[in-house]
Amino acid sequence: MKPDTTEILISADEIREMVARVADDINRDYGDRPLLVIPVLTGAFIFAADLVRLLKMPIEIDFMKVSSYVGQSSTGKLTISKDLSVDVKGKDVMIVEDVIDTGFTLSLLKQMLVDRGAASVKICTAFDKPLGRKVDIEADYNGITLPDVFIVGYGLDLDGMYRDYGDIRIVKDNEEQ
Ligand code: IMP
Ligand code: MG
Prior knowledge:
22% of the residues lie in helices and 36% in strands. It is α/β, with parallel strands linked by helices.
């Protein structure tokens, strides 16, 4: 059964405004301090690409692929399938996420980067679903707060699909198909 993804929750224009606002906040807080940006693959690749082009400090980018998600429900277990190529020691790090739900992924990842000796580790997320939270973790920079709905688009997927949508859509089961 193919899910219905026709309902737009957040438009591409609203997303653009959100990214500009988050970038302004980061620029204000960091000034000229160099930043190591770590987008969490795969979901954060579009947000990170938009965001770094608006940041004004010297930027280094390296990716991690971690997951704690299967289908529509979290497992709470972190699997690292691509680690960093750079050393985080002594660097100011910004983890860039697509969405925070339970918070398992980020709390484990943040702790790992702190343990490796990063000077600071902050979290920037495009979307936040605080109602889904199971561990105590908050983003330092949050784009848009959402209710507890499953979304796709702007990098976010359902079983690998729909990441290419320029807007954010709600996923509904389609009884007609
Ligand atoms: P958490 O560990 O539960 O916070 O999961 C965060 C990760 O789960 C995100 O980086 C996404 O990859 C995925 N995820 C959580 N909610 C959604 C959603 O609504 N749509 C698509 N992926 C989601
Ligand atoms: Mg993800």
